[in-house]
Structures are given as C-alpha cells and as structure tokens.
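Data deposition worksheet. Section B asks for the primary sequence of the deposited chain exactly as it was used as input, without tags or linkers unless they were present during the calculation. Section C holds the resulting structure in token form. Section D is free text for depositor observations; keep each observation to a single sentence. Incomplete worksheets are returned to the depositor.
Section A, Depositor: J.P.
Section B:
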Amino acid sequence: MRISKTKVLDFLVRCQIERGGYTGNDIAKLAKNIPVSPQALRKRINYWSSTDQDFNQLTYLGQRTIPITLDDFILIDQRLKEKPLGRMSDILREINDNQQKQGKNPIPQTSFYRFINSRKESLTGDAPRELQWLILFGITVVDTYNLANARASLSTVFSYTDLKTFGGIDIDGIASRLQEAQKWFQQTYPGADPFEWFPRIRPRSKVIRNLLSRIKAEESLSDQALLLFEAQVDFIVRLKDILIDELIHKMGRIQRSKDDNRQKIENRIRTQWIDKYYDVGGKVSVNPNEGNLAQLKELLDRGKPESNEAELELMKQHQVDYEKIYERIKKLTNNFSEVEISYHHTTAQVLLALCCGERKWEFLTEEERKNLTKNRLIQDMRAPEQYLKAVLTKKLISYIHKGKITFAHSFKYQDIGKVIESLELSDTDWMVTWGDIEKLIEGTYPFNFKSEIHQITHLDNKEDKSDYQSASKIPFLQVQNQVSGLVTDHNPEWFSSHKEIFEKMTDGMFEMEYDELTFLIRLYEAIGFLGRNLRYADSPSFYRLQYFIQRYLSDATLDLEFRHLWKIYEDLTGHKTPLIIIDSMGIDSRRKSLFAKIHGRYRTIGFADVRAISRYLLPVFSSNCRSSDSEAMNMMEIINHAKSVLGDEFKFCAGNAHTVSRVAAGLAFAGHRVLLLGRYPHSATKPGKICLSRLRKHLELINKVGKLVREDSEFGKIFTSREHIFAYGMNVRNLQRDLGMLILWNSKQKGYDLDDLIQLVETSNRQKRVVRIVERGVTRVSEPNVSMVLKSAELILLMSAIVNILNGKQSSKWRGMSPVSMENIALFVPAGLWKMVEGC
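Section C:
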C-alpha cells in the first residue's frame, strides 16, 4: 500500500508540538492506522528525513515517550545554555532527583541521552557537530571553519613562541602576532569580542590547553571547538596586556639610557656655557659698551640651561623609539578612539585631545603645557614638532602605568572603578567597621601579636619508644605512601572535594575516571614527580603520569591539597598558625620564554617564586610571578590562599621591605582583617586630618574594594601596581594607602622587632632548593604550568614535616622547632637499590 507523505508529516508534526518529538510507539500506532508494517514506515520516514527539510526538523525521542514535564524541559534548555560542556549525566541526575521527590519512576539513561542529543540538534539546527556548543553560545562561525586548522592555529598563530630573541623581548614580533591573531579570530568568528568572553574563562585559563591536549583529534568535536575558542580568546587578551607591559618597560629602558648619558651631555653644555660666559665677560671688561653688556645680560638671564638642552638632545637620540611606541599605542586604541581608551584626569583629557588632533599645542594654555612637560624650552616653543611625539609618548606611558588612562579592551589596564561601582555589599561583607577605623586612629587597635605568636607546639608523645635516628634515610616513596594513607582519614570529604574542584576547572566537561584510591595514588605520584623537578624520561613509571597531570592537575587541585595536609598537621600537633612570613627568590627557567626576566637581586633569568611559610617553616603558599614584581603586588593572592588553609586563626603576615607597602597593608586589612607587619622602608607616619576624614567618610568604598580583592586576587595585583583608581570620583587607591598607613603606624607604636623572625624564611628557601636540586633547580616547564611545579615542591616539604612528626614523636626533638627537615629523607633512590629495600 502506498504511504501518504502528507498524512505522515501531519501526524509527526502534531507529536512534535505536543511532546517535542515522536517516538517508536507513535510510528507503530500510525503504521497500524495506515495500515503498513512499522518497519516499512520507519524506513520511509528515514528516507524522507534525509531528503525533505520538513522531516529533517522533526525530533525522534526514542522507542518510548519519557515522562518529562514542562518544568523538566525548561530545566534541560537552561542547563544546556548555561553549561554546554556539562555532562548529560548531571542533568539526568538532577531530573531523576525531582522525579523521586514526586514519587515517579526514574528516566532511563539511554532514552534520556537520546532526547538530550535530539534537543541539542533542535537548538543548533543543521549545524555541523563540531559547532554545536559555539552556536548554543550565540557565536557566529564562518562556513569555511575547519577544526583541524583551528587546532593547528594554537601552534602557529596563537602561540607565545619566537617572541623573544637573545637581544630581549621582540615588541615588533608581539605586535605582529597580536594583529595576526585578531585578524584570524575576526575572520573565523565574525562579530565575537574576545574581551566579552574573557571573564568567563579567566578562572580556567591555565588548564584550557592541557585539557585540549588530552582529547584525540577525532573525538569530542564540539568540545574541541569550544576549548579552541576559549584558548584563542585567552591568548588575545593576555598578549595585548603583555604588549602594553613591554611598551612600559621599553620606556623605562629608554629613560635609563638617557639617565646614563645625561651627565656627560650636561657637562659638555655647561662647559660651552662657561666658555661663552668667559668670552663675553672678557669683552665687557675690555670694552663695556652697550652691545657687550646686552650680550652679558642675555647670557645671565638665560641661566644655566644644561638640563633642558640635554633633555632635548637626548630626545633626538631616541626619537625613533618614541615614534614606534606612539604608533603602537595609536594602533591599539584605533587612533585614540573614545571607545578604546578613557581618561580619568584633566591633563589626561588634554593629552588624548592632542593625540587625536582635536587640539593643537600652540593653543594650549601655559598651565596645560607645564602639566605635559617640565622642560621650559619645549613649553616656550610655539610648535615643537620635533619633540612633540616624545613629549606625548612619555606622558601617555606614564599615565597608562599610573592608571590615569585606561583601556576598554584590556584586563590588566581596564577601568577597575566601574567594577567597584558595580559591587553590592551584603551584611557579611563589611570587614572594616567604623569602630575599627576609630581604634586605628587612636592607636588602640588590639594587635595581641605576642600572645598569639608565642605558642608552644604540643606534639603527641604517647608512642615515645624509639629514639630519633637522623642517619637512617627514609625513601621518598615511603614518605609519599605514609602521608597519602593519612590524608583521607583526617579529611573524610577528601575525594568529593577533589571531584568538585575537577568539575569546576573542566566546566563539567569530563567525568572523574578514577576511584578514590587510584586518584589518591596518582595525585601523590604526580606531586612527587613535579616537586622534585624530574622529567618523564627519568623513569618508565613517570610516563603514565602525563595523562593524569594534563587532565586532572591544576593550581586549584594543589591548593586544595595544601588544606588537606595542613589539617593533618593541625590534628597531630593541635597547633594553630596566626602568622605567616612572606618572601620570594629567583628561579632560573627557559631563557627564550617570553615570560622569563632577569631578577634584580638573584640575577636569575626566569621568574620569582613568591612563598609564604609559618613560624615553624611549614609551607603555606607558593606561586610564580614576574621577576620584576614584588611580594606586595601578590599580597592578596597569598592572603586569600592562606585564609583558606589556616582559617580564622590566621591574623598576621610579615616580610621585608619588598613585602610591606601601604597599599598592600590596606588591602590585607580590608579583605580579611589581616595585619601586615615587618620592615617598612619609609617612616611609618600617621595620615593627616584630611586623609582620616576621607577614611571615615568612605567606609563603604573601602569594604567594596575589600570584597573585590577577596573574591578575585588578580584585582589585588592591579591595585598595588597603580597609583590612581577612580570610583565615584574618588581615588580609591589612596583610601587603601591611608588605611595601610594607619596599620603600619599602629605597628610602629607597638615596637615589634621582627627581623629575626623574618630571616627564618631563608632557611626554608634553602630547603626548597634541596627538594628541587635536579638540574640546579632550573625549571623546564613553560607557562602556565610553572606554578604547579613550585606548589608541588612545597607539598613535599609539608609531607616531610608530617612524616618527621609521625616517625619521631619524641617532644625533645620537635617541640619549639621546625619539623620540616629533608636530612633523613632520601629524595632519590637508584632503581636497583630500591628493589633491595622493598625486599627487606
């Protein structure tokens, strides 16, 4: 019998409207009415679906209708749009929980997955499978998109390689690479703005490429496409910030070169002036006529111009460099467009008006010229065309660095004032109260430093049977196994917390493949491998760790393990830690890496390892930063992590002059009520009356800043690196500076001497170098994996402390002393010897 195409289409459309699709039961019911066999009807429908667009748009739900309500349908669409990389099992679990609460049977997995896949297809239309997630996000993709080419672009276009030569950073290469990446991105994703997508992916930016590297080219095509998009977004935003950083550093190098040559040029100009003065003076003494006297008067009125004339000569020498920097900024801001660049100061407004041609130098007022340059010769010029670019470039770079000029499409150089203004405070966000401010002003704020710090470590000595044997070396593998055996006993939620972190860092894309025991073994093997600075080729057993490290390991995972190991230490000792000591040390790394810089004190070429330890040398924090960054710039990242590890007992942090700054002290107190102590390089004075009145008046603004840096540490680094951050017409950075001045002044009144305490960190630095002794501690891994290597080394030190406490529980050895010691631990055991040890 001939099957009516129109009748079948009408029936299936009704099913689509009523239930969101049709099932195998619907086909059987229709076949019975025609009448025809269900197999024949299904075959005909499959043919029409491949040839007719009307049939292709219909959704097949499986053999039977699954009991999905309207609320479930809305929930599914919401989850698919919110987290398109999320696992279908999570959605099924959520819906089945609702079904169970209503007393209904759970939905079968196979039928539900088929429904989800059909729902994805209905949301994405006839788009290729690899573009499904991009379309769900509303990202337009060109028809010529090729996944293989997009993946290859991460090694060619979106790559940091070859951006540094032996002569230093290649600024032209960075600018060219950025332009090439932006062009590729706009051609592939028309209308997509990387800076709109960056906030969503920023917390996971370090793991995106690692996750992508563990997906085979022919698998999970849609997941690959979205991860590629996110990696490209991250590259464009970060490379633009790097370019601005390097332009600022280039200006610093120009200034240093000018300062090195300034004295020689000034001496020459000064000699010429003296010679001319003697010549005119001699003429006046011989023949004091009107002409000679006029020349002498002109020479004296002119004064000693060596400083200004030397500046003009130095500007000429570096004119090409100034013009290059100016052109780079001009391109970055689309010819100083108001959409791309903003001013936050009246002089900055005049500066940008000059740059974009809205105003001319000759029409500026005397005051405006003085604000733009201190050189009197240039101020008096009507049209200083030869020097104008240099004057504008110097001021532009200075104002960008200080925060008086911000970029719309940048993270590091954005207008943070808008972010602060958008925050809303809850009752729990008011860390700093009016009473705290008043006590700080009066000098009566309760520090209680000595009573908090001078505690005695109380160790368990119930099994005080055997003497401590420092000569007997414990193989590191035994240390690893001993600690990993304790961690789950002291942390019942250990595995669930790691699964939660894994889901967060992967955005729900992957499921945990390991059970608790296997994950535990792999994690501690990976920590031992990374922390000891080893290579995969050093042992055949290390090769199996490569997949685990790239898929499961992240900074968040290791930070979580800090908390778990500290829980063991606190349970064993009963000791709480109110104080951390902060320092940094230089680490050598790949010299051709774009991120490797010379450390000013250690003379290493690489990066700085910023560390925080307790009074008993137990590691609390470690991460890498640029060699040019100070500890104070990373203060909020340290304190946020230390607070999560140590809890409410954490109240003080100390360090040397690189750690203690007024802004860092203000942020630490506003964020967590933590007091920053230590060596302050300047006189700790009390703020003036105007500053104190501002603190009283803008308490809400102080707490908004505290909430911002408490929730996002990267904003803390931006705060400490700028001089001006404006919100509600107020320089918020000055508020934090004044608050920090109060804290440092109060600390000075107490008269705490922390020099000996601060020096303890040098001992811990030496211990960490011992752990990373392989290849002199040179770090071979590249960004963004450097921080994982440093954190793993700290965890090894923490494991050594736990094992030393367990294996030598006599109080005479560890009471009042640091249990962190590597002298009785064999970090490396030859393979043959280890087999003999295992046999014994």
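Section D:
The radius of gyration is 33 Å.
Residues 456-471 have pLDDT under 50 and may be disordered.
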